[in-house]
Write a structure and sequence with these properties.
With 288 residues, this protein is mainly alpha-helical. It has 11 helices and no strands. About 7% of the residues have low confidence.
Length: 288
């Protein structure tokens, strides 16, 4: 039976028209298979293109999508970078008390040239030289006055830098509030879209929701490092001020105040004088 079937198929294929029909049938099957594969691959290709387009959002696109709050947040980010770099330099002990200046003032103190030390400090203003200069101007008033002036100037230098550091805390507090404002305005826009066009326009609705999320994330993205740098630089300032205090107090530890009584080392002008009724032998005026 199998032999008869094979014989019949061989005679059928050897026939010219039958052979042509079989070729057409095979070609039709191949084209049909390719068409089905192309239809199945088309949604996958479109999905891949959409995914690639979604991932191709640039920073400018995100900025525009975040809405108007991105402008003040960007300003805060620029201020954050500038303050961090500036305060990192200012709070270093080598910036507050340069080793070359400390060595020069120590040499002048060893030589007893306090006027020269005052002039040098006046010409090279830093936290160290300003503190030393003010303390030198009180040498004639004794130990207590000199030490009080020294610590007062140290507190002044500390307050000046601490005020700048506090701006980092302000940025850390304000940027989440700015982002929250963008969140509120974005939600208002989203609800307005739902009210006018309903849920049938997902593009407008997704744009409003994108503004909400990007504004919130941007505010937190700036606030977190702002607080980190605030605490880090505050601690760095405390360490540097402790070192500066030790350097300055060591200069005046063995100061011969008994030989400097009523001496006027600095160039500051004293405004207090003997009362005019004593100097001119005039009776003091009385209030009416």
């Amino acid at each position: 039976m199998q032999t008869n079937t094979a014989t019949i198929m061989t005679r059928y294929i050897s026939n010219g028209p039958a052979r042509a029909f079989l070729c057409v049938l095979l070609a039709f099957g191949v084209l049909t298979s390719l068409n089905i594969y192309a239809q199945e691959a088309a949604p996958a290709a479109e999905s891949a293109e959409a995914h690639a387009a979604a991932e191709s959002h640039s920073l400018i696109d995100r900025f525009i999508e975040g809405g108007w709050v991105m402008y003040p947040i960007t300003a805060c980010s620029i201020a954050l970078v500038w303050l961090t770099v500036d305060l990192w330099i200012r709070t270093g002990i080598k910036k507050m008390a340069p080793p070359a200046q400390v060595a020069q003032v120590q040499d002048l103190f060893r030589a007893g040239d306090y006027v020269g030390a005052y002039q040098f400090c006046k010409g090279s203003p830093t936290a160290f030289t300003n503190t030393t200069r003010v303390a030198l101007s009180f040498l004639g008033d004794g130990h207590d006055a000199t030490e009080g002036a020294l610590f007062s100037e140290l507190n002044k230098a500390n307050a000046s830098i601490q005020t700048r550091i506090n701006y980092l805390s302000v940025i850390g507090v304000c940027t989440p509030m700015i982002g929250l404002t963008g969140t509120v305005t974005g939600m208002m826009s989203a609800f307005a879209t739902l009210k006018t066009s309903g849920a049938g326009d997902p593009a407008k609705l997704s744009g409003a929701i994108g503004e909400v999320l990007i504004a919130t994330a941007s505010g937190l993205f700036i606030a977190v490092p702002a607080f980190m740098f605030f605490y880090f630089l505050r601690n760095r300032l405390q360490v540097s001020m402790s070192d500066l205090q030790e350097i300055c107090t060591s200069l005046f530890r063995k100061m011969p105040y008994q030989h400097l009584k009523d001496a006027h080392v600095g160039e500051e002008e004293f405004y207090a004088a003997i009362p005019n009724w004593v100097a001119g032998d005039v009776q003091p005026a009385t209030a009416a």
